[in-house]
Design brief:
The protein is built from 6 helices and no strands. It is mainly alpha-helical and 199 residues long. The chain has one domain.
């Protein structure tokens, strides 16, 4: 028996051992590659989720700035300078809207990437909702400015002014906009939570 073990056919054993070693090497390399891919995908998802969350918070800031009661209008408030005051207010609204529009465009780009990486449209739908809020406010801005225009002959009724102010300015009673923005931020945070907890 001892002699039969010693007289193994080494010509058969050596190629079998080499094949086994090669198979183990390929298997270890494949496992390493799969681990690297998973880490890379997890890192990419984490970075994208972080960028989206940053853009969502920028949206909150942009809307807060857009709807702030503080105005940067430095003109004489007398009646004879009504047109100048109106032009300054129009310019101020335009500048404020650019902040929201830029934040919205950035979020929309991230939302498209999220569709590819995450495989769903949740962020895209939230971006669309932010756009609807922006469009609603911008419509009310235009109406507000139409009534404030000194060349306009109509009357800016008190009830309409109250309704406009609820949309235009934060902190007004029965603010219809702020709860919508907060709900969208929470929705985005909840959707991104699994991607942010992986790292």
């Amino acid at each position: 028996m001892i002699q039969s073990i010693c007289t193994l056919d080494w010509e058969l054993v050596i190629p079998a051992a080499q094949a086994l070693a090669m198979f183990l090497g390929v298997w270890v390399a494949w496992c390493g590659l799969q681990t690297w891919r998973a880490q890379l995908k997890g890192t990419r998802e984490y970075e994208l989720a972080l960028a989206i969350l940053r853009d969502a918070y920028k949206m909150r800031y942009a809307f807060a700035h857009f709807r702030s009661n503080l105005r940067n209008i430095n003109v004489d408030l007398s009646r004879e300078f009504a047109q100048e005051r109106f032009d300054a207010e129009t310019k101020d609204w335009d500048e404020r809207s650019k902040v929201v529009f830029e934040a919205l465009e950035s979020l929309k780009v991230q939302a498209l990437e999220a569709e590819v990486v995450f495989g769903d449209k949740e962020i895209t739908e939230c971006a669309e909702e932010f756009y609807k809020i922006y469009a609603k406010i911008w419509y009310v801005v235009k109406e507000h400015l139409r009534y404030k225009n000194p060349k306009f002959s109509g009357h800016y009724g008190e009830e309409m002014m109250i309704q406009h102010h609820r949309v235009l300015f934060r902190g007004e009673e029965e603010d219809p906009i702020e709860p919508q923005i907060s709900a969208l931020i929470v929705k985005i945070e909840n959707h991104l939570k699994p991607y942010l907890q992986r790292k």
